[in-house]
Design goal:
Blueprint lengths: L6 H52 L28 E5 L4 E7 L15 E2 L2 E2 L4 E7 L3
Antiparallel strand pairs: 1-2, 2-5, 3-4
């Protein structure tokens, strides 16, 4: 009777274990990307509310998002990866502004409904998600 070597079985088991670890790692990474992008989109929905309140009080938009602290935001939302303020540029004499976030997922469905191209010096091509905020008079 021929003796069966355990080495191929061990190598095969290690191979499948590595594949399993890679799958789990990919799932965790995808969840992190998705949660950061969801946060960025959520921030982009909150910032215009604070901008509208600021405009109501000052009849112009702030030159920087940091001017929204502390009256309109305890802490202004920031890019979750870099902890920097989102890109923001006032246009139309302080009555409108472009706000930009950059998404990690280039296939995020929201990118189909945003502004693309260069807007007032801000590159809004994907994966950037840009909105133009217009203050109500």
């Amino acid at each position: 009777m021929k003796k069966i070597s355990k080495i191929p079985i061990i190598v095969l088991a290690i191979f499948f274990l590595l594949i399993f670890i890679q799958i789990i790692y990919s799932m965790i990474t995808a969840d992190r990307i998705s949660s950061k992008d969801d946060r960025r989109i959520g921030d982009l929905r909150q910032i215009p509310i604070a901008l509208e309140m600021y405009f109501d009080d000052n009849k112009t938009l702030p030159e920087s998002l940091s001017e929204l602290e502390p009256k309109y935001f305890p802490t202004v939302p920031k890019e979750p990866t870099t902890n920097q303020l989102y890109e923001y540029h006032v246009i139309e004499g302080g009555k409108s502004a472009v706000i930009k976030v950059v998404l990690d997922n280039k296939n995020y469905s929201t990118l189909k409904n945003d502004i693309d191209g260069v807007v007032s010096g801000i590159n809004c091509d994907d994966p950037a998600y840009c909105i133009i905020f217009k203050a109500e008079n």
